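Review form for a predicted model. The reviewer records the input and the model, then writes brief findings.
Reviewer: anonymous (R2)
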Amino acid sequence: MELNVKLNENFGRVAESYLFSDIAKKVKAYSAAHPEKKIIRLGIGDVTLPLAPAVISAMQKATAEMGEKETFRGYAPEYGYAFLREAIRRHYENFGVCLSDDEIYASDGAKCDCGNIVELFGDNEVLIPDPVYPVYLDSNVMSGRRVRLIETGPENGFLPSPDGLDGLDSKGYVIYLCSPNNPTGATFTAEGLKKWVDFARESGSLIIYDSAYEAFIFDDHPRSIFEIEGAKECAVEICSLSKSAGFTGTRCGWTVIPRGISSGGTYLYKMWERRQATKYNGIPYVVQRAAEAALSPEGEAQCRENVKYYLRNAKTIAAMLDEKGIFYTGGSSSPYVWMKCPGGMTSWEFFDFLLDRANVVGTPGAGFGRCGEGYFRLTGFGSAEATAEAVDRISKII
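Model under review:
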C-alpha cells in the first residue's frame, strides 16, 4: 500500500546501508562460497573478553534484589540513579576533572547520545572530521543539518585542526571531536585540544566530545576534554563503558553537560533533561549497579587488565606494519590501527584482497569518509591467538 504521508526526505541523503552491514554481507557470501576457510575478524570494534568479576558479582546481587518485594525497582530515573552518577563523578576525579553529579546524565550508550543530542540544535553548520565514526555525520544529515567536513590525513596525523576556519565572524558551529579517534586511533595532545577549545570560545561554538576510548590512554594525553582550561564553557562530553568495561552488549554510557553552557538565554542541560524525560526511560537497575561496580577501584583495576590485553593486540599489528615500513596511526593509546593500503590499492580492493588471500576481515577506510580512501582499519579486539595468526597471514602477503 502506498501511503499518502510525507516522509523525512533527509533520509534520502544518507547512504542506503550501514558500513558494517555491507561488510557482513561480503563476509557471509565469501564464507558460503568457501566453507573450509577459517576467517579471522579484525573489523568491527566489538569486545571479546567477558565482563569483569566485580561487574558480574554486582549484577548477580542486583538481580537477586529484583526478585524480592522489598528491594524490587521499577522505572529508573531518567538521568541515572544517584549512586551511578556519583561513581562517574569519582571516575573523572582520577584524572583531575571535577564535576557535580547533576552535570552527569547516564544513558544506554555513547552511540545513542551522539545521535540524540542533535535534537537540541537549530540551523547550525556542523563541523565533522573526515574520516570519522559514521554516526556523527549520518545523524546530522538525517536531521537536515549543514555539514562541513574537516579533512585530515597523514600530513597532520589524522587529527583535525581549527586552523584556517572562519570562526571569529560565524554564528557558532557544532563541532564533533573524538579522541582517541575512531577509526584512526589518533589521539589529541593537550595542545591540540586547547586549539579547539580556544576556537570554540572565541566563535561561540559548541564541541561535542566523544571520549568512548579514553580508557586506552596510559600516557599523558588528555582523557577528558575537561582537562583543558575553558572547556566547561564550550563542550559537552559523551563517554561509554562499551570498550573500557566490555559493555557493548550490556549498554551503559553517559553525557556530561556543564551547567553554565547556554545559548540565547537557554541552558543546554535543561534542554537535555527535557528531551530525556520525554523520550527515555532510563537504564535498568541491574545494569546501573554493574556500571557502578565497573567504576569502583576494584572494577576499574580488573577492566584495565582487559584494556591492556586489547592494547597488546594492537601493538602486535603495529609491530608488523613497522617491519613492513607501512604508514599507520593508532596502535598506541587506541585499540585501532589505521594503516595505508599497500600497493596503491583502494580501501575496498584491500578488503577483498585480505579476505581472499589471508581470510582476514578488516574495515575499509572509505566507509568512514572521503579522506579514508586508501586506508584500512584493523582492531585489537580479537583474541591474542587470533590476532597473532592474522598478523602472520597478513605479513606473508604484503
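Findings: The chain has eleven helices and 15 strands.
Further findings: The chain has a mean pLDDT of 95.
Recommendation: see findings above.
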